[in-house]
Specification:
Elements (H helix, E strand, L loop, with lengths): L4 E5 L10 H11 L3 E4 L4 H4 E3 L2 E2 L2 H12 L3 E5 L7 H6 L26 H18 L5 E5 L15 H15 L2 H8 L26 H29 L5 E2 L1 E3 L7 H5 L5 E5 L1 H7 L4 H6 L8 H9 L10 E6 L17 H11 L2 E6 L25 H12 L13 E4 L2 H9 L8 H14 L4 E4 L10 E4 L7 H9 L3 E4 L27 E8 L6 E5 L2 E14 L2 E7 L7 E5 L3 E4 L1 E3 L1 H14 L11 E6 L2 E6 L5 E2 L6 E5 L3 E2 L3 E7 L1
Parallel strand pairs: 1-2, 1-11, 2-5, 5-6, 6-7, 8-9, 9-10, 10-11, 12-13, 12-14, 14-15, 15-21
Antiparallel strand pairs: 3-4, 16-18, 17-18, 17-19, 18-22, 19-20, 20-21, 23-24, 24-28, 25-27, 26-28
Helix pairs in contact: 1-3, 5-8, 6-8, 8-15, 13-14, 16-18
The structure holds beta-D-galactopyranose.
The site of beta-D-galactopyranose has 11 residues, from loops.
Length: about 650
């Protein structure tokens, strides 16, 4: 038997302890093997400074473990206790409006605070010392969803001092900073590092290099916070992986960098919550309202899977949406069968374990309208039945691992910050652009790893760079030494890591790969369309247009009233460069062409259908409301379903 290991997030502290053993038994009976606990438990364990009550947590661990569950214990730093805030109000975070964000919900701490880091180390050590060798505790989670509720960046005094120290180390001399930031502009010259404030509350936009450096500093503080706790836990709990539950759809800090601080990776999957919250156009949101985008789960697994990082390690979904959530603008109910689809597609994309959030709906507190596997009265809810079905289905599934993908897609977090700091136009949205490229390559049935620019690229045949604004000489030099094919989106290399225009203009050092110079850029309003002619077909584009000169081949040209015939798509033997935000069908055509040149076969499929492979297992998922037939393949033997998929249904096969 293989298939995903299953588990659940549980809050013993929310329930009468008489219920714990019954719950534990019911979890095991359902087929769950993991239970995650403790991430908000600090105030209940240490009710006053140095005064510990371990008894309840000892009992909970014993009860769950003795029932046969493996426990993932969390360090409880996502919710510091009231006494800590009373003793140290300076650890509270400060919002972009300059106001202190107070006690009374969660995540009320500033990641720049060394005082808080000290307390976080202390409580992590207490947890790790007490439970590090406990036979039931088999994995750890550090904190909870760093960055949630806009907490990746805080504008506190601690952040100010930390940032000044960071700048001093980076630039050594204040004049070096003045030159690097171009403070001559608007007469922003600084005399000393201690003069420098945080980039908020300014009359007009702050200096972009100042804002960007503050993002870099804040991102490093997060890596430090995770890494420091991880090290303590590892020292006391050898052999148990340390994880963090990264938040899907969050770009405020460098997840690639922070992933390096933990042993295995995990993310929290809310396909409907993130759809409603996310950047897809409204018609797409309504199309996928009850299933989430067919690419949501695949994209995030491809991003958080560690293949690209060379260090192996399992991929986890640490919180899986079970029904309507409470926190998006609207909170629809998933289609019947959607939880099953999400779980299996996660497995197909490499997730080894899926933990559902949460066991039972809370009858109190801010998340009362958030569903769980049970309603608050204890009766099973939708996901419960779908999990039972998965447990039956996985009986016949042999163990397999994914093979490395032939294509890498670069997601560069600093480029996202650069876009936000110097947007040029509101319509350019990195998240949407990456989603469109991912969708196009998946519509071609091609597998992809979503990776950072420092990944080892040597095994990839094709590298997609949809929105890498920040020039990266080291990455480009590696590309020059390697022979993979490349597709570059507009704006590539258009800013240096110091937020300046690169010498010679865009695309900066990418000019080593493509013979092209960007002379002018323009952003265009929503609804305005540009047209591109490529190999006799006309495609939609829009949002962004670059005016370029090139010595390479022009294969696509703009048509229409404004500068018709000017280059839209340029290529040489290795690289294709797009000067505009091409529509989906244009992207598909360009990526198919690039794949072909790289020797990668395409298998075009419709958008509601997703096909992927985990070793010798093939998976097909129908997210649409219609029946879909998947092509029969020689040697195909179905383990789940068959060639015809009903709405919100799936099939699994082996291929000999
Ligand atoms: C996550 C968070 C959980 C819970 C959940 C509700 O973002 O980690 O603690 O609040 O959302 O969907």
């Amino acid at each position: 038997m293989s298939g995903p290991e299953l588990g659940v997030c549980y809050y013993p502290e929310h329930w009468d302890r008489a219920q714990w053993s019954e719950d534990a038994r019911a979890m095991v009976d359902l087929g769950l093997s993991w239970v995650r606990i403790g991430e908000f438990s600090w105030a209940l364990v240490e009710s006053r400074r140095g005064q510990f009550d371990w008894e309840w947590l000892d009992t909970a661990v014993e009860t769950l473990g003795a029932a046969g569950l493996r426990i993932m214990l969390c360090t409880p730093t996502a919710a510091p206790p009231r006494w800590l805030i009373a003793d140290h109000p300076e650890v509270l975070p400060v919002g972009v409006d300059g106001r202190v964000r107070d006690f009374g919900s969660r995540r009320h701490y500033c990641l720049s605070s060394d005082v808080y880091l000290g307390h976080a180390k202390r409580i992590a050590r207490h947890f790790a010392e007490r439970y590090g060798q406990n036979p039931y505790v088999r994995a750890w989670q550090i904190d909870n969803e760093i960055g949630d509720h806009d907490t990746a960046i805080s504008y506190s005094q601690a952040a100010l001092f930390g940032f000044q120290v960071w700048l001093r180390r980076r630039y050594l001399e204040i004049d070096a900073l003045n030159v690097a930031w171009g403070t001559v502009f608007w007469g922003q010259r600084y005399e000393d590092f201690s003069d420098i404030g945080l980039p908020i509350g300014t009359v007009a936009e702050p200096n972009p290099a100042h804002a960007f450096d503050f993002r870099c500093y804040s991102s490093e503080r997060i890596a430090l916070f995770l890494g420091t706790q991880a090290e303590i836990v590892r020292a006391h709990s050898p052999g148990r992986p340390v994880l963090h539950n990264f938040m899907a759809g969050s770009y405020d800090f460098d997840h690639h960098r922070s992933m390096g601080e933990v042993d295995e990776t995990g993310f929290d999957s809310y396909p409907l919550g993130n759809l409603v919250h996310g950047s897809l156009p409204e018609h797409e949101k309504s199309r996928w309202l009850r299933t989430g985008s067919p690419d949501y789960q695949g994209f995030h697994c491809d991003l958080y899977r560690r293949d690209g990082y060379g260090s192996g390690g399992r991929l986890w979904i640490l919180e899986q949406q079970p029904g309507p959530v409470n926190w998006a603008r609207h909170n629809p109910s998933p289609a019947d069968g959607a939880v099953r689809l999400w779980t299996w597609i996660a497995y197909a994309h490499g997730a080894d374990a899926v933990l559902f959030f949460r066991w039972r709906q809370a009858p109190f507190g801010p998340e009362q309208f958030h569903t769980g596997l049970h309603r608050s009265d204890g009766t099973p809810d939708q996901a419960f039945g779908e999990i039972s079905r998965i447990v039956d289905e996985r009986q016949g599934i042999p163990a397999t691992e994914r093979s490395p993908a032939p294509v890498a897609m670069i997601l560069d977090y600093p480029s996202r910050w650069a876009q936000a700091i110097l947007p040029q136009g509101q319509g350019y949205c990195g998240e949407e652009i990456t989603a469109a490229w991912y969708r196009a390559i998946r519509n071609l049935g091609i597998e992809v790893d979503v990776v950072g620019p420092s990944v080892d690229i040597s095994s990839y045949e094709l590298i997609l760079v949809p929105d890498m604004l920040v020039d990266n000489v080291e990455f480009v030099d590696r590309m020059c030494r390697h022979d993979a094919h490349l597709v570059l989106g507009p704006r590539c290399g258009s800013l240096t890591p110091g937020m300046r225009t690169p010498e010679g203009g865009a695309p900066g050092s990418f000019r080593k790969l493509v013979n092209l110079t960007v002379e002018r850029v323009e952003s265009l309003p929503d609804g305005h369309e540009e047209y591109v002619e490529l190999e006799g077909e006309t495609f939609r584009a829009g949002g962004w247009r670059e005016h370029v000169t090139t010595g390479d081949r022009v294969i696509g040209r703009f048509t229409g009233g404004f500068r018709p015939g000017s280059p839209a798509i340029v290529e040489n033997d290795r690289v294709i460069y797009l000067t505009t935000l091409a529509g989906l069908s244009c992207l598909e055509k360009v990526l198919a062409k690039a794949a072909k040149r790289a020797g990668i076969a395409s298998y075009p499929i419709s958008e509601g259908l997703r096909v992927t492979y985990r070793g010798q297992l093939g998976f097909a998922f129908n997210f649409s409301n219609e029946n879909v037939d998947i092509p029969e393949r020689p040697g195909q033997r179905f383990l789940i379903g068959g060639c015809r998929l009903g709405p919100i249904d799936m099939a699994v096969w082996t291929q000999t």
